Amino acid sequence: MAAVVLNNVTKLFGETAVIKGISMSIAKGEFVSLLGPSGCGKTTLLRMIAGLEQTTSGSIIIGEKDSTALPPEKRDIAMVFQSYALLPHLNVFDNVMFPLRMRNLGTRQEQARRVKDVLEMVQLSHLATRRPRELSGGQQQRVAVARAVVSSPQVLLLDEPLSNLDARLRESMQEELIQLHRQTGLTTIFVTHDQEEALSLSDRIILLNEGTIEQEGTPAELYGAPTTRFSAGFMGSSNILDVELVMDGDACRAMLSAEDVLTLAKGYVRGGASTITFRQEDVQLAPAGDSTCTARVETAIFLGSRVRYVVRAGLHCIRCLATDGQIFKVGETVALQVAPNRIRVLD
Amino acid sequence: MNKYHDDWIIAAPGILLLCFAFLVPVAGIMVLGIKNPDGSLTISYIERFLTDAYYLGVAWRTIKLSCIITLVCAIAGFPFAYVMARASPNLRVWLMILITLPLMTSVVVRTFGWMVLLGRGGLLPEALYLMGFVRRNYSLMHTEAAIIIGMIQILFPFMVLSIVGVILRLDPRIEEASRVMGCSFLASVKRVVLPLSIPGIVAGSLLVFTLSVSYFITPSLLGGARLPVLAGSIYETATKSQDWAFAAAQSLILFIGVLILLIPYISLTRKSHG
Asked: Following DSSP, what letter does each residue of A180-214 receive, concatenated?
């Protein structure tokens, strides 16, 4: 029942391997994000699925049909480009009609009705006769989305479609994308470098790094349980510390310095140099007192509902995001605590 | 207001040059064409042109050949320009050199080259003879075909360069989008690239047409005395019969004719822009 299956696909540009053997299977109706920094190959991978880039080896199966060697027009796909790529010489209605006409789907009247329905769905019916350049960025974006969903493709490919919008518009477009996905039930692959966008939109996130899959899972898994240093760093706002682990009875302790100690959850049995990670909102600061770990406040940034601190414990800089009332001053000594089950040891 | 003033000062040298080196002499020639030797206005020269079957034939040949040349340049120029615009930067440089190199050699030299290629025993007639299309000793010289071939070779770069500029400015993602939406390669060129290239095709056609109606070296050398075009006829009238007034009248007619043909073209470009 998979809508899209990639079997060990690779891509070489000249001598450089951009995609180094990626396999994945995307279920029908799933919303999957390809997340990663620029240059990780996420856009190349999307373009390979679209047929805009040749696949060097491996196979791509779309809707149970081997599409590895098919040109884009023979694949049952639709794509929204970062620049929208609307056809400037056609008006909104004809732009949305274009895929139906090119693919010969339905009679002329059926096509017109579908275009009308889709324009209704993205709330653009009143602009049907406008040319693309007479529209705002957000409206162009909706036309691009309407044009992509109108042919009900096997898979909808989105290439950073929100990155050209300002922050407020981006938020409302995210909500619209979620609704649209619910309404249409289209299998969607979404490329982004913005982890928040990936977290808020997807059923599943595939984190790419240098042409390979670094980690994949639900947003909660990636956010809460990064398994590698790269994932922890990329998913943002995590503290990653290189520390000495010491067993003390049946408890495993991380030594930030000789006096400053964090206790790990039960079950970790190991010692020696390791890397631990915990999120900045899991750090609790309290007035100095009886505590196993103390730190000095280096910077405090007031963010309205929250305060972001950078504190120093031993040689380590730790970022914290405090939500409760107490405000500490720069230079103050504080007690630092992290709940044991929030600390993860990276492999 | 001040800004406006400054603009005029900066443009002044160019405007003065245009006035004294172009507008005044051209206006002088135009006036010459509608004036009697005693200074009174007359349309007798223009009347002579418009009532003489010979000169009407010359005008008709000029327009017909220019239209064919423009059409062939546009039909061949668009695919060439497309390939050039979508080629790798390296290949594009070579194609650019290939297309502009002829512009750096003298038109007269190139025309003499064509006389060798098209004349009796030349490369083209020989090839046609060997393929069995024509008899021995066939010559393409002094035919309208010769004029067309020679002129296309000279004017083709103008068409290609006009179109290349426009295609290079198109977002390549638009073509990719059309492929993803179900267009084959050819359908995408026809339905997306071609309509969006119209400003370039119009600009190139304008250039090629106006240049070809006023060209006289190549048509007179390749076409010979029996196939005069308007520019050649003006030259003959001015130099051989020394009839300056009638030569000026012919220039005036050519000028007005080009203007009349340009107006719909210009409004067409404006439409595709706005």
From this structure: HHHHH--EEEEEES-HHHHHHH-SEEEEEETTEEE
